[in-house]
Design a protein that fits this description.
heterodimer, A: mainly alpha, B: mainly alpha, 2 strands, NqrDE/RnfAE (chain A), EC 7.-.-.- (chain A), NqrDE/RnfAE_oxidrdctase (chain A), transmembrane (chain A), Ion-translocating oxidoreductase complex subunit A (chain A)
């Protein structure tokens, strides 16, 4: 039941893009087409789950016992950068179809702040291993949900008559504001 | 002359937030009041100026192939310093900024300037570029913070100007951030068209 709450809180109530404001560069960068949004979503779900598992293990079994907590920023970012490289190699060798689907988005993920943020938040919230996994899964699916919905809206926006000053990014921000307003409606669900 | 140009570029022409659209996450997340916005700007300015300086100093020693990991180590050192300093001396601000302080390490502005500018230019130019970029970032962040705080709770820098009951609470909630930056960009577009 607790895991259920963690999952839905990460998915809807604290949606990583629209409520917590993380990973906005990719939110506006790759959401102009549905295909790219879907590709990015797969890459994020894949990398976020693995990297939060690895960083949880590093923090609790290496940094914490030796009182090296001050190294967490440096060690997490290097771990994630290395992991992304390894995952890219592994996918290219073992699952070429999946590699083709998310190929160019994998390297971009190193600078996606949501990945690092989830690693930090799982430690700040003092989650156990299982909760941390459920949390990162919820966050990454929430990311996919928001970015794919947003891509659908933006494909329509490209054809809509928009005042001249608002064309391009300004109207994208206004759209995001309306979506964020809708997600605020989930506040208070599941008694959280 | 070129020093002045390096300093000036970040403030208006290449304003990182409103022009280049980088480093957006902290801008939207911590701009719900002007004081948080200013605190975040100071932290980013410290990291950006110091990392630009160090990267410019070591640029001749760094092999091209491993430059990105080395930049990241330099940046994360300064982020760890500011993280611990803020936690010790400004605990309330640190609480308000939360996870966004350690996340300065993945802020695209800092890595972007190290790669695009400091790696290729002398130390003094790099420091000035860092100062200019930080001022541009501060300007964007604080102006969004002021608008949101004024419309959301009727105050500026904590100074109450009108009754909070007249204010629209939505402006300090997440949607208000998207709304403010969208309108600010549209206004800039309009302004620029008039000037040119």
């Amino acid at each position: 039941m607790e895991l259920f709450g963690i999952f839905f809180s990460a998915l809807l109530i604290n949606n990583i893009l629209l409520i917590r404001f993380l990973a906005l560069c990719s939110f506006f960068g790759v959401s102009t087409k549905i295909d790219t949004a879907v590709g990015m979503s797969f890459a994020v779900v894949f990398v976020m789950t693995i990297s939060s598992a690895v960083s949880w293990i590093i923090y609790h079994f290496i940094l914490s016992p030796f009182h090296l907590e001050f190294l967490r920023t440096a060690s997490f970012i290097l771990t994630i950068a290395a992991l992304v490289q390894l995952e890219e190699l592994y996918l290219r060798k073992m699952i070429p179809a999946l590699y083709r689907a998310m190929g160019i988005y994998l390297p971009l993920i190193t600078t996606n702040c949501a990945i690092l943020a989830v690693a930090f938040l799982a430690i700040d919230y003092r989650f156990g291993f299982l909760s941390a996994m459920v949390y990162s899964l919820g966050v990454s699916i929430g990311y996919s949900l928001a970015i794919v919905l947003f891509a659908y809206v933006r494909e329509r926006l490209a054809l809509a008559p928009i005042p001249k000053w608002f064309q391009g990014y300004p109207i994208a921000f206004i759209t995001a504001a309306l979506m964020s307003l809708a997600f605020l409606g989930f506040t208070g669900m599941f008694g959280l | 002359m070129s020093l002045w140009r390096d300093f000036n570029a970040g403030i208006a022409i290449e304003n990182p937030v409103l022009r280049l659209m980088i480093g957006l996450c902290p801008v939207l997340a911590v701009s719900n009041n002007a004081i948080n916005a200013l605190g975040m700007s100071c932290a980013v300015a410290f990291v950006l100026i110091c990392s630009n300086m160090v990267v410019a100093m070591i640029r001749k020693l760094v092999p091209d192939e491993v430059r990105i990991p080395i930049f990241i180590i330099v940046i994360s050192t300064f982020v760890t310093i500011i993280d611990y300093v803020m936690n010790a001396y400004f605990p309330a601000l640190y609480q308000a900024l939360g996870v966004f302080v350690p996340l300065i390490v993945v802020n695209c502005i800092i890595l972007g300037r190290a790669e695009a500018f400091a790696y290729r230019q002398p130390v003094l130019n790099s420091i000035l570029d860092g100062v200019g970029m930080s001022l541009g970032f501060t300007l964007a962040l604080v102006s969004i913070g002021v608008v949101r705080e004024l419309l959301g709770v009727g105050a500026i820098f904590g100074l109450q100007l009108f009754e909070p009951t007249l204010a629209a609470i939505i402006m300090i909630l997440p949607p208000g951030a998207f709304l403010t930056i969208g309108c600010l960009m549209a206004a800039l577009n309009k302004l620029e068209n008039k000037v040119l």
